């Protein structure tokens, strides 16, 4: 099988232009929203499980939780776009700078790793710069508990955005 450089060179000879703007803005505008929606759905599942186990909530309570779900999703989508927009833009910029294209299933692992690393670095910077109290110490375990779930959500969001916005292998190759 040909390398990615050979595929891109062949595709450029036949009029293929890498969609850098589409990749950057697609990742930046939807990447954070997708992460926020995933965060909301995970939190909703944890909340309903907690309410059922601990508080023995009735069916009416569960129905009221499900009626609130669209508002939670909308709110967390905007929160995710605000908080996750920067790492999503950085992931899109990196992937478009590298002219990343899909060839096989292993590319999903690479996109997950890129999204995971960029989101975890961003989470580390946010934890370090938001720690303004001199007597408050954040241990490695605290950072792990904060950044690891966010980084997993960032990696999954990068995979979803990659499926939507990254170019696939050219049809005539």
TrEMBL record:
<feature type="transmembrane region" description="Helical">
    <location>
        <begin position="143"/>
        <end position="166"/>
    </location>
</feature>
<protein>
    <submittedName>
        <fullName>Uncharacterized protein</fullName>
    </submittedName>
</protein>
<keyword id="KW-1133">Transmembrane helix</keyword>
<feature type="transmembrane region" description="Helical">
    <location>
        <begin position="109"/>
        <end position="131"/>
    </location>
</feature>
<feature type="transmembrane region" description="Helical">
    <location>
        <begin position="71"/>
        <end position="97"/>
    </location>
</feature>
<keyword id="KW-0472">Membrane</keyword>
<feature type="transmembrane region" description="Helical">
    <location>
        <begin position="21"/>
        <end position="46"/>
    </location>
</feature>
<keyword id="KW-0812">Transmembrane</keyword>
